[in-house]
Amino acid sequence: MKRNFLLLLVLTQFLFSCKEETAIVVPAPEFTVYEYYAVHEPVLVKDVTKAEHYLWDFGNGITSTDKFPHTWVYTEPGIYTIRLTTYTQGQKSTTEKQLKIGQYYAYEAQLLSYYENYELEGGDMSGPSEGNPDVYLQISHYINDAEEVLYKSEVRPGVTKEDLPLSWSFYPIALGGSAVLPPYFSPFFRFYDSNADKADRLIAHNLVTGGSSHLQFDKEKNEGQYSQKRGGDDWGSHVVVKFKMKFP
């Protein structure tokens, strides 16, 4: 009887010892994020695994301890690794996902309407028509307050309203912008009326004071465009710029 009691005591201690030493299994954390974004585009994560504590590393020097971190942006194109570490009951678990950050590049500009007078040069909006313009497109940006021309097209003579819309294709040009400014703020897409005996006249461009802007981008098709319009459907400045995203 005494022997059986000792065996039962040893067996009980063994079972409790095994139970105490059983490791807590914490599943690998999960989250959902779209596979690519543009520079300065806010990144959003969702479907984050439940845990007690979180540590995010976005691969650009920024970290967060929130379950759903506030949106963040990348300022340079490249491939970044997002690392999520979770802590549950003293156990640590980590997962990683790669994110591609691209840059918008314009490849085509369209002229849908233009001013026939000097409205965009500070003239009277009701001023007389200057006739059918000899149109060319100039793309430029500013470096240290100096204008740098990135592209200048050939002149298309005697463009009438019936000729519109007109399109210009060119080698890819990076679109600017920032975390607070949209891509259509840089570079400048300006359409001019070429004149032999006086200064060329600005007839339309992509950043007109008082105009309305619209930006759209289809990530699945990698096709986007923005438009800037001031005036009506058949008068005023109306410009469309088409772009794609490119990766380094």
Explain the layout of strands and helices.
Elements: H1 2-21, E1 32-33, E2 36-38, E3 45-46, E4 53-57, E5 63-64, E6 78-88, E7 91-113, E8 135-143, E9 146-152, E10 166-174, E11 188-193, E12 201-205, E13 212-218, E14 223-230, E15 237-246
Beta-strand content bin = 35-45%
Contiguous runs where pLDDT drops below 50 for at least 5 residues: 5-11
Structural class: mainly beta
CATH class of the largest domain: Mainly Beta
Tell me the Rg in angstroms: 30 Å
Helix and strand element order: HEEEEEEEEEEEEEEE
Q: Kindly state the mean pLDDT as a whole number?
A: 88
Secondary structure: number of strands: 15
Named CATH architecture of the largest domain: Sandwich
**Helicity, in percent?**
under 10%
Give your account of this protein's structure.
This protein is mostly beta strands and 248 residues long. The protein folds into 2 domains: 24-102, Immunoglobulins (Immunoglobulin-like), CATH 2.60.40.10; 104-246, Sandwich (Immunoglobulin-like), CATH 2.60.40. It has one helix at 2-21, and strands spanning 32-33, 36-38, 45-46, 53-57, 63-64, 78-88, 91-113, 135-143, 146-152, 166-174, 188-193, 201-205, 212-218, 223-230, 237-246. The strands form 3 sheets. Strands 2, 4, 5, 6, 7, 10, 13, 14 and 15 form a 9-stranded mixed beta sheet that branches. A 4-stranded antiparallel beta sheet has the order 9-8-11-12, with no helix packed on it. A hairpin with a 5-residue loop joins strand 4 (53-57) and strand 5. It is elongated and about 85 Å long. The N and C termini lie far apart (80 Å). Residues 54-85 form the PKD domain. InterPro entries: Ig-like_fold, PKD_dom, PKD_dom_sf.
